[in-house]
Design brief:
The protein has helices spanning 4-7, 11-18, 20-31, 40-57, 66-84, 90-110, 116-123, 127-137, 152-163, 170-188, 192-203, 208-215, 219-239. It is mainly alpha-helical. The longest helix is centred in the middle third of the chain and has 21 residues, at 90-110.
Length: 245
């Protein structure tokens, strides 16, 4: 039975209040890759705005779980906040692509996976600078801009498609399917430990700390494996022309 306070609330208020814990969960999963200077509370506030927007726009007649729809908007709001602070600016995304391409090319040249210091030397940057770029690479696996949706109309079109599985946007539908197939294939080709970390993190939604306990390795080691896996996956999408600078 609902409490008197809950009975007097509007259904949209229920959606917001009941799903507030998801905002912190999403922010925590993003903030683990950020420098300490970033105020997590600001990201939580941005995420709450995304949640409120989701509650206002959600249409239950579409037979979609609210949190599936809301998670997209929460994450989008948090990433927009980071972009406004220049963490995910176009220039930083370019640095990430350059690092990924260089790492893959160097690995092929050496016949083995390139070490961090080797990639840094190839890029002519310090190891500290390399690690900063690597941190940024872990914030967002694929952003809307990466997929070529740079204008507001483009992004709204993609959001509409993701929110409504019946949308008749053939281009968006084909593009998402292409990406899903490429990512699935690329995950299958990852080294075993990277594949396991990706599966536990993105599908089972375990935290880095929980994954560390499962694999009996440190949380920092899980983070390193995750970064390598993301780099390999993004490089695959980039190589297939599915993401842009």
């Amino acid at each position: 039975m609902k409490s008197p306070a809950k009975r007097n609330r509007h259904p949209k208020e229920d959606l917001i209040i009941d799903n507030l814990p998801y905002v912190k969960r999403i922010v925590n999963r993003i903030s683990i890759h950020l420098p300490p200077s970033v105020e997590v509370e600001d990201l939580v506030n941005a995420g709450v705005i995304g949640l409120i927007s989701a509650a206002e726009r959600f249409d239950p007649s579409r037979d979609k779980k609210f949190i599936t729809y809301a998670a997209f908007r929460i994450r989008g709001a948090v990433l927009s906040e980071l972009r406004s602070r220049d963490y995910l600016s176009r220039s930083n995304r370019r640095k990430i692509r350059e690092m990924e391409r260089t790492s893959v090319a160097l690995g092929k040249k050496l016949g083995r996976e390139a070490e961090d210091d080797e990639v840094a030397r190839e890029l002519n940057i310090s190891l500290d600078e390399f690690y900063e770029i690597k941190k940024l690479a872990g914030i967002s696996f694929i952003s809307l801009e990466d997929l070529g949706y740079s204008s507001r109309d483009d992004r709204d079109s993609l959001r509409s498609y993701l929110a409504d599985s019946r949308a008749e946007d053939a281009f968006a539908h084909t593009r998402i399917r292409e990406i899903e197939n490429t990512v699935a294939k690329a995950i299958d080709e990852l080294p075993e430990k990277e594949r396991l970390v990706v599966t536990l993190y993105y599908w089972e939604e375990l935290t880095m700390k929980e994954i560390g306990k499962v694999l009996e390795i440190s949380e920092s080691r899980v983070s390193q494996i995750h970064s390598k896996a993301v780099m390999h996956l993004r490089a695959k999408l980039d190589g297939d022309g599915l993401i842009w600078d």
